[in-house]
Amino acid sequence: MKKLTLATIWLDGCSGCHMSFVDVDERILQVAEKYDIIFSPLVDVKEFPEKVDVTLLEGAISTDEDVEMVKKIRKSTKTLIAFGDCAVTSNVPSMRNHYDLKDVFKRGYLETSTDNDVIPDEMLPKLLDKAYPVHHFVDVDVFLQGCPPSADTIFYALVEIAEGRTPELSKRARFG
Ligand code: SF4
Q1: Which has fewest Cβ within 10 Å: 13, 18, 44, 145?
Q2: What is the 83 CA–ligand 1 centroid distance (Å)?
Q3: Level-2 CATH architecture, domain 4-97+128-162
Q4: pLDDT range class, residue 176, cuts 50, 70, 90
């Protein structure tokens, strides 16, 4: 059977979902039988590929660069997986959504600073007014819930997709 290509990426995430992916342990060999990992923090490739079969996208969409990236990913990807609760609901990054952006900056760069208390206004991606889930900007094919999703759930979803099936995720435990 022809292997699929797999990309993994995190935007406004903590990398915990990727750590859970690594927790598939020796089953990574079974993943490698079904997928070529062509883009990921785990491999040294800088440009997101033009074409990829499956992408695991961790994290919320929080900056103008995230918006640009998520649109590029969608355009290049056949099956887009919102990977973890930050991607599915905006989760932890959305804790700031209850506050004005100026108050968020003030808290982060002035009130809690011990040195160099300046709000940066250049050379950084522009923060959106709120943190958004991935599906706010693009269509998502599979929602993989959990903070993080368990290694078992990630493995199950990848195998199902590789076998041409739609993963049944509604009954799977969200935590562990
Ligand atoms: S869902 Fe949880 S583990 Fe995954 S990026 Fe968000 S906070 Fe981290």
Answers
A1: 44
A2: 9
A3: 3-Layer(aba) Sandwich (3.40)
A4: very low
